[in-house]
Amino acid sequence: MRKPLIIGIAAAALLASYAATRAQAPPGGPPPPLALADVKWQPWSNTGLPRIPTDLGPDGPAPRRQLAGMWDPARGGIGARGARGMPAPLTAWGEMVSKTHKSGDGVRQVEAPDINDPLSTQGDPGGYPRQLLFELRTVQFLPTQYSIVAAFMWERRYRTIWTDGRALPADPDPRWYGYSVGRWEDDYTFVVNSNGTDERTWLDNAGNPHSSEMTVEERWHRLSEKRLELTVTLTDPKAYTRPWVALDKLPFVQIPENVDLIEMMNSATEAQAVAAAFRAERELERQQAAPGK
Amino acid sequence: MKATLRGLALAILGVLVVPVTMSGHHGSASFDNTKEITLKGTVTEWLWANPHCFLKVDAKDETGAVRNWNLEFGNPTDITARGYSRRTFKVGDEISVTVTPVKSGAPVGRARVVTLASGQKL
Fold first, then answer.
1. Which domain holds residue A54?
2. Of A74, A200, A243, B36, whose CA is between 20 and 30 Å from A37?
3. 257-276 in A: which are within 8 Å (CB) of B?
């Protein structure tokens, strides 16, 4: 009899804490990171399997120099309002570019029909590092002899992180997902450095800009068998006055590798259909305001 | 006991998920979050798409005139977790849906709870 009461109180406390967290987030500002203990993996999809295990079982010690597996940041990875860390001040170039970004979230937020996000309205690739700062859902690391392949649920994109000792290109031709190399800094910290990104892509869903001169450092720290955290630091002197931390210890949990993830893509066809639906809404509102016109 | 726990878990998930999925990609200033209305009508279109799904429903207003409502949902991934799929609706289905309408009075809103003809609630 007492157990449901205790669970109810715990649930109420959780909801109150969640509501307080949302209330404290500044308008357009970044939400605070989730505490590690609050991270629950999301059963996005598991086609073909009758039961989805939500109990992750007991945790264990972190294996040495190993990232292989499927990792889920739950809702902590979605980042709709922008990067978690507060961006550094924009340079004059950054200001100029940011004024052209009409986003669906954050300080540049406009009404839905006016959004010009190339990802959501045109079906462009989200690009890197937006891949880490918006809709970061499940990611699977697949080690090979020369690299670690990171396969992302969102957009169904993959990146190759070279681990064969090669250097980043000195003068890279920009690419949607840039160039990445990785190394083990110690037995439990895998550091990825990237450059050569395409400045047509937005940094995040708040429309923060970046240049193709940006360099990115990802630190994937293995805390235990089933816990991992990610810190992302951006250095882009063309767009920002100083380096800044966009993700600070974002927690992940390891989920079973037999989960068949849902297909989550942003096709050009769907992007256009959604944009048309928003325009239709605006037209209905216009007719309501001025019937017969 | 198991049912209680399951219900509690679903309630928590619902509270945590719904506001986020509905506000994830654009503003909500035009919606009247203090109001909830119930529409009973016929599905005319179901758009299953990223970053938002849309449902169009013909429903009579208080004068008996039919209005075609444009209802927003979250993205397919998030609403899949609430039981929706690409095949949830087909044109002609009779449904009931609670809606957060826009302030202007236009037939536009955000869908909350859908009741299918079978009685199933989503």
1. 2-289
2. A243
3. 262, 264-267, 270-271, 273-274
User: How far apart, in whole angstroms, are the C-alpha atoms of residue A147 and residue A256?
Assistant: 22
**Closest chain B residue to the Cα of A1, Cα to Cα:** B1
Question: What mean pLDDT value characterizes chain A?
Answer: 84
A90-97, Cβ contacts within 8 angstroms, sequence gap of 24 or more: A90/A209, A90/A239, A90/A240, A90/A241, A91/A237, A91/A238, A91/A239, A91/A240, A91/A241, A93/A211, A93/A238, A93/A239, A94/A209, A94/A211, A94/A238, A94/A239, A94/A240, A97/A199, A97/A209, A97/A239
Q: Look up tokens 């300080």; give the residue.
A: A107
Note the pLDDT of residue B88: 94
Cβ neighbours of residue B18 closer than 8 Å, sequence gap 6 or more: B74, B112
Specify the number of domains making up chain A. Answer: 1
- Are B8 and A22 within 8 A, CB to CB? no
DSSP-derived letter for residue B102 is: B
CA-wise closest residue to A114 among A273, A275, A274, A270: A275
Query: So what's the pLDDT on residue A38?
Result: 52
pLDDT in tens, A128-167: 999 999 999 899 999 999 999 999 999 999 999 999 999 9
- All residues of chain A having their beta carbon less than 8 Å from the beta carbon of residue B47 are 273-274, 277
Instruction: Evaluate whether A110 touches A100 at the Cβ level (below 8 Å).
Output: no
| Percentage of the residues of chain A whose pLDDT score is greater than 70 | 80
Domains annotated for chain B, with CATH where assigned, are 2-115 (2.40.50.140)
pLDDT in tens, A59-75: 889 999 999 999 988 77
Inter-chain touch B8–A109, beta carbons under 8 Å:
no
